[in-house]
Every structure is written in C-alpha cells, then in structure tokens.
Amino acid sequence: MWKIYYKDRTGGQNPDFWGEKLLDLDVARSKEMGKQDYMTDIFLKYFPKKGKILDGGCGIGQHVLAYKDLGYQIEGLDFSEEAISKIIKFDKNAPCKKGNILKIDVPDSSFDCYYSFGVLEHFEEGPFEALDEARRILKDDGIFMMTVPYENLFRRIKFNILNLIAKLGGKSHFFTNIGFIKKVNGYFQLSGKNSNIRFHEHICNKKEILSALILKGFKVEYMSPC
C-alpha cells in the first residue's frame, strides 16, 4: 500500500478542500458523463430497479442526477456544503443532502444498495469505520459497491523505482508534485510530524481491499481493476 500526502494543503477528509476542487466543475456536463462512464455496465448490472440506492460521497451528483433520470430511486450524500449547493442550484428537486458517511442519519437496513465512488481511500486510518456504517444501513441482502485507486502495474513500477531512489538517499519517502508518497505495511501508520504535510489518500492493492471487505462481513462477488 502507498500513502499519498499533500504539502501545504489538506486533502483527505477536509470538506473545504473538496469544495474548492468542485467549484469549477459543470453539473450539467457531469450529469451527462455520469450516464456513460466506466462504471455504467456495473451500475446497470447491480443497481436494483426497485430499491433505494445511496451514493455516499456523491460530489456534484453526476451519478445521482444521471440515474434519477433513468428511473432509479437514488439519493446522494456528501460532506461538502459547496457540492450540495451546486447540485440543488442545478436541480432544486435533486435527492442530495449534506452528511457524513461515517454517521449516516438513517435507520438500520434503510438501503438496498450503497455505492461509494473514490471516497474510502481518503481515511488515513483505513476504510473500516465507513464499511461498518455501510453494513448498518444496508439490508441483509443489500449490495455495496466501491471504487478506490488501484496499485496497478504502472504505479507499482514507478513508485518502487522512486522508493528505491529515496532509500538510497537515506529517506523514508519520496517527493512528487503533490507532496510525498510513502510505502506502508498497513492502514494504521501515523503520518509525519511536519505541520505542513497532510494525508490525502491510499493507493491499494486487490488483496488489501478484499481483506478489509471480508473482515467487515461482506461477501465479495466481483472485483475488477480499471
């Protein structure tokens, strides 16, 4: 696993950071892209036609708006007030609201399907608390879907070469244009003490994600790198 940090700015679970990144995005264009992207085949296969779907960490609502138009009973949740405001400004009836995926304000077993697009990698302590909450809000036969950055062959070669160079130079990490990247053996290693360094995301391999899901009681039906 690799941990990516930002220098002099905060990523990870900071809503202001994500709100700023979303300001220049066009909701209408994102909605159209949401109707046909690399997740479309997966959504059409697993989204229940008759059942409640939650998009946890919906951003500016590209999938919520797209699949609402297609007749799905889908809702969006995001911790960025700016993101939710952009969605509601575009569509005042959009089923999206501000909230925290670690403490979702719904009763147990409320949803038939829960989808999280590029969110769970942003918890430095790992995805475990978010997975617990996903299990809580899903029905017993519910479907959970998630995407995270994948430690593919290109990244593995690139990162390991840079990591070797760093070690030869007596360093434990290497710098990139976003700060520094560090190889770790597990989720629970603390970040450095430098006040200007903030955790951004994990880049995970298949085994790590599989283990986390099984640990939290999920039966894994399908995994695919893309």
Note down, in words, how this protein is organized.
The structure is a single chain. By secondary structure, the chain is of the alpha/beta class. Helices cover 34% and strands 23% of the residues. The protein has eight helices and nine strands. The strands form two sheets. The protein has a five-stranded parallel β-sheet with strand order 4-3-2-5-6. A four-stranded antiparallel β-sheet has the order 7-8-1-9, covered by helices on one side. Strand 5, helix 6 (128-137) and strand 6 (138-147) form a beta-alpha-beta unit. Helix 2 crosses helix 4 (62-69).
Walk me through the topology:
Blueprint: E1 2-7, H1 15-22, H2 27-34, H3 40-46, E2 52-56, H4 62-69, E3 73-78, H5 81-90, E4 96-98, E5 111-117, H6 128-137, E6 138-147, H7 153-168, E7 174-176, E8 179-183, E9 197-203, H8 206-215
Parallel strand pairs: 2-3, 2-5, 3-4, 5-6
Antiparallel strand pairs: 1-8, 1-9, 7-8
Descriptors for this entry?
single chain, 226 residues, alpha/beta, 5-stranded parallel beta sheet, 4-stranded antiparallel beta sheet, 9 strands, 23% strand, globular
Low-pLDDT residue intervals, each spanning 5 or more residues? none
Round the Cα radius of gyration to an integer and report it. Answer: 18 Å
Strand order in the largest sheet: 4-3-2-5-6
Q: Into which percentage range does the β-strand content fall?
A: 15-25%
What average pLDDT do the residues reach?
88
Helix content: 25-40%
Number of helices: 8
Describe the biggest sheet?
A: 5 strands, parallel
- Beginning-to-end CA distance, first to last residue: 17 Å
Give me the strand/helix succession: EHHHEHEHEEHEHEEEH
Q: Work out the number of β strands.
A: 9
Structural class of the helix and strand makeup?
Answer: alpha/beta
The general outline is globular
